């Protein structure tokens, strides 16, 4: 954000509460502060017919597959949001099994709220997705950021202890 959404003046950096913040330079009249709070995102470990669904976004490289995720919408609970996302992205009806956990994703300034979802129906990908994989829980190698840590925690609760995927050695989180 470069300009104040209240008065239009160019924002300046200042330290407040020990952090860099964007401020309106006209503190006496406007007083706007851009706090840059994290954005809530919901994520699903989707279990369908005994396997986990990983999907590839149309904007990603051919080897990247991950959990179903989406932004939480205004007025929506995280539970409502993740059921909506599973329906929108995969056309599956979902039921929440458990909250897996909360995970920071600093690079995107997001707070990820991850769930395990059991889903039913026939998969139909949304226009955002171009492919999906079906994997047994023990076949998934967690990745070292964001939703990958949710996968690792979910697997550990089930006695599965896979090494974290090393992007420097392989091209796919499911390669052997």
TrEMBL record:
Name of one Pfam family that matches: Zn_ribbon_Nudix
One MF annotation (Gene Ontology) recorded for this entry: hydrolase activity
Keyword Iron: no
Keywords from the named record: Hydrolase
Top-level division of the source organism's lineage: Bacteria
Residues covered by the Nudix hydrolase domain: 37-157
Cross-referenced PROSITE patterns: NUDIX, NUDIX_BOX
PANTHER family per the UniProt record, alphabetical: NUDIX HYDROLASE 23, NUDIX HYDROLASE 23, CHLOROPLASTIC
Protein name: NUDIX hydrolase
Organism: Flectobacillus rivi
């Amino acid at each position: 954000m470069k300009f104040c959404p209240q008065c239009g003046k160019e924002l300046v950096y200042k330290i407040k509460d020990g952090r860099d913040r964007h401020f309106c330079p006209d503190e006496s009249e406007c007083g706007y502060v851009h706090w840059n709070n994290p954005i809530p995102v919901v994520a699903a470990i989707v279990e369908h017919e005994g396997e986990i669904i990983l999907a590839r976004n149309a904007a990603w490289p051919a080897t990247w597959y991950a959990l179903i995720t989406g932004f939480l919408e205004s007025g929506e609970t995280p539970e409502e949001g993740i059921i909506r996302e599973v329906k929108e992205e995969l056309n599956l009806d979902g039921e929440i099994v458990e909250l897996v956990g909360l995970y920071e994703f600093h690079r995107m300034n997001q707070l990820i709220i991850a769930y395990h979802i059991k889903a039913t129906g026939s998969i139909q990908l949304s226009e955002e997705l171009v492919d999906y994989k079906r994997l047994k829980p023990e076949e998934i190698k967690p990745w070292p950021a964001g939703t990958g840590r949710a996968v690792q925690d979910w697997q550990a609760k089930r006695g599965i202890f896979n090494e974290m995927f090393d992007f420097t050695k392989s091209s796919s989180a499911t390669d052997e």
